[in-house]
Amino acid sequence: MPDRNEDSAISFGPFRLFPKSRLLEKEGSPLHVGGRALDILIFLAGRPGEVVDKRELVKRIWADVNVDEGSLRFHIAALRKALGDTGKSARYVVNVPGRGYCFVASFAQPAPPAAPPPAEIAAPHSLPAQLTKMVGREDVIEKISNGLSLYRFMTVVGPGGIGKTAVAVTVGHRRSQDFGGRVFFVDFGPLRDASHIATTIASALGLTISAEDPTPALLTFLKTGPALLIFDSCEHVLDNLAPLVERIVREAPQLRVLATSRESFRSEGERIFRLFPLDCPPEREGLAVAEVLAYPAAQLFVERIAQSSGPFQLSAEEAPLVANICRRLDGIALAIELAAGRVNAYGIAGTASLLDSRFSLQWRGRRTAVPRHQTLAAALDWSYDLLPAAESATLRRLSVFAGPFAPEAAAAVASGDGVTASETLEAIDSLVTKSLISPSGSRTLRYRLLDTTRTYAHGKLNELGETRQFARRHAEHFRDFFGRAEADNSTPLPEWLSIYGAELDNVRAALDWAFGPDGEATLGIALTAAAVTLWVRLSLFAECRERSRTALAALGDTAEENRIRMQLLSALGWSLMYGEGRAREARPILETTLELADRLDDKDFRLRALWGLCIDQFNNGQFGKARTLADRFANAAANSPDRTDVMLGDRLTAVALHYLGDQNEARLRIDRVNASLHVLAEKPKIFPLDLRISTQYFRARILWLQGLADQAQALTARNIEEGRANGHALTFCSVLGQAACPITYWAGDFDAAERHGTELLEHTDRHAIRLWGLWARAFNAAVIVKRGDVATGLPLLSEELNRAGDARFLPRFLPLLGELAACFLEADQVDRGLDVIEDVLTRCNNRQELWYLPELTRIKGELMLRSARYAGDAEAHFREAMGIAVQQGARFWELRCAISLARTMVGAGQSANALAVLDNVRGAFAEGSDFADMRIARDLIAQLRT
């Protein structure tokens, strides 16, 4: 620890601050404070009682880097937290609104300065100059510095360029006075002959030793008093250096050794400190400048730009690019510094685009840096050239993986040609210890190459002409892997996604190679067909569509290829249907799929094609035809050995009946599916959504329309939690859009409706699910109107529905079109409302889209009631709407129609008849006393009775 007598302490409360030593103590023990926060405290404590302007504070702490006040507030908050400055008792740093910050601690006083250090203690002449500022490493430096008081031999381990040397040098300077200036830096990087290790150490200590074995003389010197030896870049001399270190540590009791290496010594008494990359900003949209600059990797990048190019201010537009650069460079300090040095020439966007090229490996850094630190390629050459043949071969071959990989995959792809599977796994273990491969941090064992290492290793693979061979093995492995995945229906979806979804980047890389100029299209076609299940379960329908088209374009015309053609056409049809909705080309593609399935007598794909054709009819509003196809599906499924196919047939029929307006029969079918869910042991092969969850949101809709509000709301609440936990993006869209949003809207709970609509929109943006995103925007506009802001919500609703284009004809948009007409009524634009309602009613009757017909007819009646020309016809429309609702078994619509009819009758002086109508309808409800329409009916009945 620093000598307290050589630093002037500032004492306040239980704290003592040593500015020169950059040390803060609480009750005599070191207290960790982040580097920036400590800078702020030292500066403010040096001017006690004075209000320091925020701009002055930012300029002092961040030097030439321009940051906004958000960064300052972030570190002030961290400082207050460390000091326990809650604002309720102890106060140390206060904000003076509009001015700045002030250090207000009581009894703050400097300790008397101590005498200067003795003249005989010389500065450590072999220790390189200390960097002016270390970014993001204050915690690490403090831990290692403190660790040297507890452990006599520590090794800082990490990949090349991560900053091991800079950390060790900074620790050496910080602990120099503790060792009386006897801190010696020994750089083994240039050493090629390990027999000269002892003489290299002696030279760094300033000793001239003529003996053949200099070790005894070294020990004599090291025993004379405390000393710290810093051994840098030891990885290539470990075999010879390790026994020497063990000996000198054992025989020189006042000695401490701090080493840096890309792998540990594995010596007695060694304490390993693994140096990790700098923390990088997360991959998230909308990151503000202050959020990006809160991460050390971004701080380093921006500071190095300022050093090389002059004052620099990070803009909001460039902040996401900087975050991406830092992530792409894996938080490796050397890589970030080299990239920052390119910004003056290429700009931030240009620098980001160059990261994909091997050219970035040749970017040069400081001229004064040792050769192995002047470029990334040099740093990696240093490590690569030290590897045994099996390890260098394994590293090269693993570069074909994109992202993390499992040990089994590595063994399958990288073994062979003189390297067995067991040798491959042994090589991986060794490469991990040498910091060239990293564990990925997932729950199951997986590894990854840092992007810079992967680019370097792939270059070596190209140089040796091995790329095609191992890219083919990579594609073959994942073709077989996903062939098994398609048949894996017993694994729960979240677990399935964690196993197979983790390989998405590898599938993409394999397909890009297979359909590239040096690839094998036949292998790409097979891999595409095998990967369809992955894309569907990840709701990546656009990617599935484009990949399927690429594979079909490469497929021949022979009958032998009809089976894989059928599989790819099915994938293309489904991706069009679920990704684009009313895609005109989906139907002929699915019809061809059905034709091929019949020709090949493939029962599985016959059901897939029928399912797709039925959904396509739903999307295009042909509900009568959809019902016919649902019956065909049910008949085809009746003889299936898979019981889930029968359940899917009932579900299709239930949905068709629901949209056709037969809620009672729809309820029978959906309840039959619900009663069988307990036997569902596998995920259906042909259904992209979760069958359990999707059954419940349609049940909830039907229950609501039948007037069973309590059951519907309770089921919806459970459905939301299950859908959220399930992890399937498209399923959760349907949970929110088919049940949660409309049911809370119909219930008049607009707080919940707004909450669900917002969540749906964020979910669709995150997963790029376009159709549900269009619907969510329009729904949220309708909620704005219902909350009373007609001036904002109505034009927004109209605009969003126009933006939806042909998607407006999907069934989910029908209620929003009805609400548009009702919103025109709210805005007193009756004629426009009538125009909209006539168009929508025509659509419903032409398409047999009858489930919403009672509500549309009621809305038309309300519009007519406000029109001088049509007011006399309003009551007839209310009665017609009630009759349709009764026929459909839709008591909720019936209640709404009864309220409209009763109000009209009251206006005509028929209060007794109005009361009878309301009493009759309300009395049929066995539950649901607290939703909006029920409250309206109850209040109206009370008024009529008085």
Strand content: 5-15%
The total of beta strands comes to 17
* N-to-C CA distance: 87 Å
Low-pLDDT segments, ≥5 res: 1-5, 107-125, 358-374
Work out the helix count: 42
Largest sheet: 5 strands, antiparallel
Overall geometry: globular
Structural features, described:
The chain is α/β, with parallel strands linked by helices and 946 residues long. Helices cover 60% and strands 6% of the residues. The protein contains 42 helices and 17 strands. The strands form five sheets. It has a five-stranded antiparallel β-sheet, covered by helices on one side. A hairpin with a 7-residue loop joins strand 16 and strand 17. Helix 15 crosses helix 18. Mean pLDDT is 86; it is low at 1-5, 107-125 and 358-374.
Topology:
Elements: E1 10-12, E2 15-18, E3 23-26, E4 29-30, H1 35-45, E5 51-53, H2 54-62, E6 65-66, H3 69-83, E7 93-96, E8 100-103, E9 109-110, H4 138-150, E10 153-157, H5 164-175, E11 183-187, H6 197-204, H7 215-222, E12 227-232, H8 238-251, E13 255-261, E14 271-274, H9 289-292, H10 296-309, E15 312-313, H11 319-328, H12 333-340, H13 343-354, H14 376-384, H15 389-398, H16 407-414, H17 421-433, E16 438-439, E17 447-448, H18 451-463, H19 467-487, H20 493-500, H21 504-514, H22 521-537, H23 541-554, H24 562-580, H25 586-600, H26 603-619, H27 623-637, H28 643-660, H29 663-676, H30 691-705, H31 709-726, H32 729-746, H33 750-767, H34 770-786, H35 790-804, H36 814-826, H37 830-847, H38 853-865, H39 874-888, H40 891-907, H41 911-923, H42 932-945
Parallel strand pairs: 6-15, 10-13, 10-14, 11-12, 12-13
Antiparallel strand pairs: 1-2, 1-9, 2-3, 3-4, 5-8, 7-8, 16-17
Helix pairs in contact: 1-3, 4-5, 10-12, 11-13, 15-17, 15-18, 16-17, 16-19, 19-21, 19-22, 21-22, 22-23, 22-24, 23-24, 24-25, 24-26, 25-26, 26-27, 27-28, 28-29, 28-30, 29-30, 30-31, 30-32, 31-32, 32-33, 32-34, 33-34, 34-35, 34-36, 35-36, 36-37, 36-38, 37-38, 38-39, 38-40, 39-40, 40-41, 41-42
